[in-house]
């Protein structure tokens, strides 16, 4: 048949389908993250301790994923050894205690829209670290490499515009439909400059930790290719680590008691969807595309969070936010184009070598 690929050639339909599944998986992850951001903002502003949220959501995630591990990867448990435990410990430290913990503390003194901006530092930091440790190549003499660099620079430029330039206040739609009493976020209050500085430093630290998490996650997938067991074990390890750190920060046991309110909803949502489902999807995407691909979709959550945060909670949207978001989206597509071309070339070389 004319549509059938020859031996040694890739199937165009299969390639497009896999590319679509990778992209759709990451969009779903970003939608889950948006829900987590908004719920967490409300719960943290209501007085919830950030590490209490990390501990309980990880326990919920482990409970949600365990049945799938027992059903689909029963024999994989035998491959867990000391080296795997070591990588899982490091993975949990970067991905849960440092990245999520710092993010929640930064979110508590800013807002969801402002903190979402810093998620776009992650792909840039991941890209630079990956180049430094030689897990990612930088081919400046090729169009693919130039597009990746251009996309990264546009994302950084867009983030700086959003962070530093406000411009005109835009009235695009009805805002604060929930009647939220803290609609004017700290990031926009002149009297809370110190909190904004602290929050910005915490969010920058979270972005760097997330970048290291993606690098370590790629190694964990290599030594222990198990989506469900790895998610469950990392969640348990992260919960234990966060509990130790949380006890050091807060000795009030009343903060560790959950009630039937927004805090419990946030814990269950974050555990099942954000830590559970999203972790499984991320593991699969990283195993197919490497550690650089997933964080480039963080700009999707920036756009959605900015819109929903404005409509429901009343966070102001300025002209600078719109201009910066456009730059970030253009940078995202430029980077993905270059990365996609590189993946296709690498796949062809691999198939040619096997033939």
From TrEMBL:
GO cellular component: membrane
Subcellular location: Membrane
Keyword Repressor annotated: no
Species for this entry: Urochloa decumbens
Main location: membrane
Membrane disposition: Multi-pass membrane protein
Transmembrane annotation, as ranges: 20-39, 51-72, 84-106, 112-133, 145-165, 196-216, 228-247, 267-286, 293-312, 318-338
Residue span(s) of domain EamA: 24-156, 199-335
InterPro entries: EamA_dom, EmrE-like, WAT1-related
Family named by the database record: Belongs to the drug/metabolite transporter (DMT) superfamily. Plant drug/metabolite exporter (P-DME) (TC 2.A.7.4) family.
SUPFAM superfamilies: Multidrug resistance efflux transporter EmrE
One Pfam family it belongs to: EamA
UniProt keyword terms in alphabetical order: Membrane, Transmembrane, Transmembrane helix
Protein name: WAT1-related protein
């Amino acid at each position: 048949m004319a549509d059938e690929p020859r031996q040694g050639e890739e199937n165009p339909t299969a390639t497009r389908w896999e590319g679509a599944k990778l992209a759709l998986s990451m969009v779903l992850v970003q939608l889950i993250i948006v829900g987590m951001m908004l719920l967490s903002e409300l719960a943290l502003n209501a007085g919830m301790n950030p590490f209490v949220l990390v501990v309980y959501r990880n326990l919920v995630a482990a409970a949600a994923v365990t049945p799938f591990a027992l059903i689909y990867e029963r024999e994989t448990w035998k491959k867990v050894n000391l080296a795997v435990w070591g990588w899982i410990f490091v993975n949990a430290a970067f991905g849960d205690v440092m990245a999520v913990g710092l993010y929640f503390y930064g979110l508590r003194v800013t807002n969801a829209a402002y903190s979402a901006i810093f998620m776009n530092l992650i792909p840039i930091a991941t890209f630079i670290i990956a180049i430094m440790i030689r897990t990612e190549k930088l081919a400046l003499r090729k169009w693919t490499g130039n597009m990746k660099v251009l996309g990264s620079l546009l994302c950084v430029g867009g983030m700086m515009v959003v962070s530093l330039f406000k411009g005109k206040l835009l009235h695009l739609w009805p805002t604060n439909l929930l009647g939220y009493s803290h609609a004017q976020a700290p990031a926009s209050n002149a009297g809370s400059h110190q909190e904004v500085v602290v929050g910005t430093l915490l969010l920058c630290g979270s972005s760097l930790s997330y970048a290291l998490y993606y690098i370590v996650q790629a190694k964990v997938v290599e030594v222990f290719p198990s989506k469900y067991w790895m998610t469950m074990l990392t969640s348990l390890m992260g919960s234990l680590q966060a509990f130790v750190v949380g006890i050091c920060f807060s000795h009030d046991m009343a903060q560790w008691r959950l009630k039937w309110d927004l805090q419990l909803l946030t814990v269950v949502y974050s555990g099942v969807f954000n830590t559970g489902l999203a972790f499984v999807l991320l593991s699969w995407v990283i195993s197919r595309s490497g550690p650089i691909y997933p964080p480039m979709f963080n700009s999707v959550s920036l756009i959605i969070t900015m819109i929903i945060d404005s409509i429901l909670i009343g966070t102001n949207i300025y002209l600078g936010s719109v201009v910066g978001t456009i730059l970030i989206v253009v940078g995202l597509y430029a980077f993905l184009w270059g990365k996609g071309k590189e993946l296709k070339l690498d796949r062809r070389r691999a198939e040619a070598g096997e033939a």
